[in-house]
Amino acid sequence: MTFKSWFYDHFVAARYDKTLAEITDDFRQICIDRTTVKAGDTVLDLGCGTGLNQPHLAARLRADAGGKIIGVDASENMLAQARARAQAQGYADRLQLIQGDIRNLRQLVEGPVDVVIATLIFSVVPDWRNVFAASFELLKPGGRYGTMDNYWPNPSLRLWFLSWTFAADAKRPGFEPLQQAAADFQLEYHPPDADVQFYVAYGTKPEQPE
Ligand SMILES: C[S@@+](CC[C@H](N)C(=O)[O-])C[C@H]1O[C@@H](n2cnc3c(N)ncnc32)[C@H](O)[C@@H]1O
Questions:
Q1: Binding-site residues, ligand 1, Cβ < 6 A
Q2: Whose CA is closest to atom 13 on ligand 1?
Q3: 66 C-alpha vs ligand 1 centroid, how far in Å?
Q4: CA-CA distance, 203 to 75, in Å (whole number)?
Q5: Could you state, in order of their start, the residue ranges of all structural domains in the chain?
Q6: Average pLDDT over residues 45-51
Q7: Exposed (0-12), middle (13-18) or buried (19+): which is 83, by Cβ within 10 Å?
Q8: Which fold has domain 3-204?
Q9: Which pLDDT score, from 0 to 100, does residue 192 have?
Q10: Helix (H, G, I), strand (E, B), or coil: what is residue 34?
Q11: DSSP codes, 144-166
């Protein structure tokens, strides 16, 4: 149990999807599309929460090709919703959920994985640069990494309110470690000219360490 998972268990889980599902769905799809998920991939959904990425991932993965999602989160009540969603939408056979603190990722997930998806997590988890490093380490050489989050050095009132509601810090440049580590880093902001923007960043782990 971490402070953030306690906060998410008690104050966020019950209203998370209602508040965030609709406004983030397009950017999740863009992130997953740009990151390129193939039928037989093992995908780590880092800090997966209620599993809002997982229907999009499951649609691209096939159990008979060995494709699967490993979702890790510390909050029991967030994970319960991810589990219920997978059962309701028929992809529980492609989903493994692990409850734990992603600051200890190396002890929770064996790896290697083909893809890491990290959405709305680096603005929330403490020690986020080390969490990124551990997740990038789990990626196979040539594996793909996609991340999506809010980042605004000068937050609008609406973003400030959203951040406060979800115990997030939108001033963290969550894409920066990927920019330094990936071979072909790309960064986009969506939607253009909105008062709350989401970045989508993606790149590939170099085949040989640089
Ligand atoms: C804003 S939610 C993002 C959930 C999901 N990735 C999404 O895109 O909807 C942040 C999540 O981080 C989880 N979290 C925060 N600190 C954590 C930690 N140290 N270890 C594991 N999960 C953590 C919370 O439980 C919550 O589910």
A1: 2, 4-5, 8, 47-49, 52-53, 73-75, 78, 101-103, 119-121, 124-125, 166
A2: 47
A3: 26
A4: 28
A5: 3-204
A6: 98
A7: middle
A8: Rossmann fold (3.40.50)
A9: 82
A10: helix
A11: EEEEEEE--SS--HHHHHHHHHT
Does the pTM surpass 0.90? The reply is yes
| pLDDT classification of 95: cutoffs 50, 70, 90 | very high
Helix, strand, coil percent values for the chain (each to nearest 5): 45, 20, 35
List of residues 6+ apart from 207 with CB closer than 8 A:
141, 142, 183
> Tens of pLDDT along 133-157?
999 999 999 999 999 999 887 678 8
In contact, 46 and 72? CB cutoff 8 Å: yes
Task: Give the pair of three-digit tokens for residue 116.
Answer: 């890491």
